[in-house]
Design goal:
The structure is a homodimer. Chain A is of the alpha+beta class. Chain A has 3 domains: about 210 residues, Bira Bifunctional Protein, Domain 2 (BirA Bifunctional Protein, domain 2); about 120 residues, 3-Layer(aba) Sandwich (Rossmann fold), CATH 3.40.50; about 70 residues, C-terminal domain of ProRS (Translation Initiation Factor IF3), CATH 3.30.110.30. Helices cover about 35% and strands about 25% of the residues of chain A. The first copy, chain A, has 14 helices and 25 strands. In chain A, α2 crosses α6 and α9 packs across α12. Chain A is globular. Chain A starts with 11 loop residues before the first helix and ends with a strand. The interface between A and B is large, with 61 and 61 residues.
Chain lengths: ~500, ~500
């Protein structure tokens, strides 16, 4: 079990794919690019969802559900939007199958739709078409709605969680009476996302805005949360968009102001997806398996009995159940692995692969001494602890692990963020992996040139420290912003 | 506000449609047959989901996610299954749009899929294709998985919640080593469903099995929960299926038994959907609006201040906030409507329309007397109560309302369940509305004849009292089961 994974050093990408599958998070399905999220992976996703959902509701949002399918003509209404999504649209053209008579099941040519329907890649168009009927006056605003949904983007090169044809996400869609209020909303959701990513996924994120060419198709400003993975590549973990009046204009959504005038409504949209599962895996895990922050771990404590005979096993099992009851009282989840067919070493490796934050080992000698072996998954430190009040010890330890995992990722991010002073240095940094901080002239030409020559993109103009303090390293022109360049997923 | 709804007596069907829309539960979308579930409706659905999810987990099930799309060939593998769903399948044939150059967006003919994909109408086929890789030995069993998902059945005549092209549901899919275990599982989930429906939706349900012709396409036995709506029509509220080895055979899923032999796996599947929202509305509500059982009501208490001036309003609002704090402590949700632009009568009607179980009215005279007016939505009873400890009173009242709503529905069901002694009487009963209990010879011929002549179907062979005690009323042949006939949604 222990040596099953390709090491990160050997092949980071292969390590990731193997880990996602072997740790029972997800697997490829029979449908190209679509994944099956297995129960263990889904339990982590459910924890993410629960926490995010709580934050959305605490900030005044309500959940709703909009159709999976979108009429083709809706897409065409916002020019940039259709351009952004046309090439990856799954299209429904028929609504019936039939038996040819010979047992062959074929699409019934008589059941062709008058207008083709697209499986939503995102829902701005169908939602703004709906909001048109909901909004007449300033009294109807703001509308603060979120939906948890599956979406489909027909990607040609897919990777589990990071880029799949079907993926799971939430999409917030809000409508406001003023530009300022919409802008505040978009920024607020960036903050909620970032706080969640740092506090729960334990990944520090750079909060910033996207350059024009990296914006969401139809947005006037895109706020992003950028994480750094262990291979030095950046990962966009979530975005929040200020959409201006673009969708309100495309769908003719106007409201009567307090003053009696008619104006177009201001909009935002924001989303995070199962992609965060990929970030979770890539930011923390090691060659032995997952390392899960306790706040998202489905099982906090794995217990392994060390015994030579049935009598010992029974005594140890009883002790574990006693500890388990104490843990449950503190909302700590556990699993006792008393499968007689597996050796302790095998069980250790299995718990490591699954990223269970704390492992307890208990044998007859420990029982005599009133001690228990406590092993941390993240640092692999082991210690012998008094068995009395062990639940309290574990409670503290889980908090420490959560903090420690974040700190490690934060140290890594800091060590791999370099302010560069020449284009050559920029190339070197992004090639080795990490963020290169540099002044940028603000032009798409420069951005494209860097992308072509280094494969790095501008990840964002950071909210803090984004002011230029010198000339653009690439063009030599006056700097407009100080930005972060990196290769990215 | 109060007189906005068509009455049930005038046009039950119209009343239902109007109520669903006016109470802000759901509305039709721009996509034929697909609905938008609005925040108020979705909040009820979320409460249903939370309670069901808890029950699934308590009985050992885990959530997972399987693909939205299913290869066409998978359907063809189980003959009855494809027959059951072929006529209502939404088919994805292309994966790209393109701009014709003139701004017209068309389906790109070069992006035709080699094999068409069906939007899942249910997931047995894709899931059993997956289980094939998960199951080798008896040690891999049972598999107890559920998914919360959207599904698509291209219905020609749709009604909000009751029958929509896209709907939301959960589908459990379990795999077992023995027939007995699978059968037990299917029965257990019927029990969980029925307990939830009675305990939360407050609708009494008949627990029974379906006749062969009414079974799920691919099932060997279908267990059902049948509710009775106020118009005397039955509604199938949830089903649980014993699938035998049909899907294991279709997808070649075998396991090694403890004894070392190879056998096909036994299966169940079970689902409840947003259709339950329709049952909730139709079973309890009246001509003034929704009547919601407190356990599913998003807002338990609506508060309306009665005042003549700003000073009075401030005093009353303060009192309401004080009461609200006490209610929150007891997990009771509330809304204070202090909108100065609306009159109290309008607010009363609005709370009635939304089915808020308890309404509080408070005016200056009440304040002086230390009393408050408490109105029940279900019975419309009003009483003046001491304002002190009002939260405790409301807590008890909400429990009473939950029980009372159930009892009313149960009395209605009993009053509309008639054991009939002739075919003529059967016709009369189902025509007036309600369940007709009668002996049945067990033949599809008789079933079809009754269906053709009366539009009633056999809703189920009830778990209790399903033994025949005489000849079939229709054919005169020996009775095989005692069944419930009714017209149904």
């Amino acid at each position: 079990m222990a040596k099953q994974l390709t090491s990160r050093k050997e092949d980071y990408s292969k390590w990731y794919n193997e880990l996602v599958i072997k740790a029972d998070l997800a697997e490829h399905s029979a449908v190209r690019g679509c994944m099956v999220i297995k129960p263990y992976g889904f339990a982590i996703w459910e924890k993410m969802k629960a926490q995010l959902d709580k934050r959305f509701k605490a900030t005044g949002h309500q959940n709703a559900a909009f159709p999976l399918l979108i009429p083709k003509s809706f897409f065409a209404k916002e020019a940039k939007h259709v351009e952004g999504f046309a090439l990856e649209s799954a299209v429904v053209t028929h609504y019936r199958l039939k038996n040819q008579g010979d047992g062959n099941i074929v699409v019934d040519p008589d059941a062709k739709l008058e207008e083709e329907l697209i499986i939503r890649p995102t829902s701005e168009t169908i939602i703004w078409n709906t909001y048109k009927n909901w909004i007449q006056s300033y009294r109807d605003l703001p509308i603060l709605i979120n939906q948890w949904a599956n979406v489909m983007r027909w990607e040609m090169r897919t990777r589990l969680f990071l880029r799949t044809a079907e993926f799971f996400w939430q999409e917030g869609h809000t409508a406001h009476a003023t530009k300022e209020e919409a802008m505040e909303e978009a920024k607020l959701m960036q903050k909620e996302y970032a706080d969640f990513m740092e506090g729960y996924i334990a990944v520090p994120v750079i909060r910033g805005t996207k350059s024009e060419s990296e914006r969401f198709a139809g947005a006037e400003e895109t706020f992003t949360c950028e994480g750094l993975m262990q291979d030095g590549k950046a990962l966009q973990m979530g975005t929040s968009h200020f959409l201006g009046q673009n969708f309100a204009k495309a769908f003719d959504v106007k409201f009567q102001t307090k003053e009696g005038t008619l104006e177009h409504v201001w909009a935002t949209s924001w989303g995070v997806s199962t992609r965060m599962m990929g970030a979770l895996v890539m930011a923390h895990s090691d060659d032995e398996g997952l390392i899960l922050p306790p706040k998202l771990a489905p099982i906090h404590v794995g217990m392994v009995p060390i015994y030579k005979n049935e009598e010992q096993l029974n005594q140890i099992r009883e002790k574990f159940q006693h500890i388990g009851a104490q843990l449950s009282n503190a909302n700590i989840t556990f699993k006792i692995d008393d499968d007689d067919a597996k050796r302790p070493g095998f069980k250790f490796a299995e718990f490591e692969l699954k990223g269970i934050p704390v492992r307890l080992g208990l044998g007859p000698r420990d029982m005599e001494n009133g001690t228990i072996e406590v092993a941390r998954r993240d640092t692999k430190e082991k210690s012998s602890q008094p068995i009395e009040n062990i639940a309290t010890h574990i409670e503290g330890l889980l908090k420490e692990i959560q903090t420690s995992i974040y700190k490690k990722a934060d140290d890594f991010r800091k060590a791999n963020t370099t302010t560069v002073s020449s284009y050559d240095e920029l190339k070197e940094v992004v090639d080795q992996g990490g963020f290169a901080v540099a002044n940028w002239d603000g032009s798409t030409e420069t951005e494209d040139k860097v992308k072509e020559e280094t494969k790095a993109t501008i990840r964002c103009i950071p909210n803090e420290g984004g002011e230029a303090d010198g000339d653009c390293l690439v063009s030599g022109k006056a700097g407009k912003h100080k930005v972060l360049y990196a290769k990215a997923y």
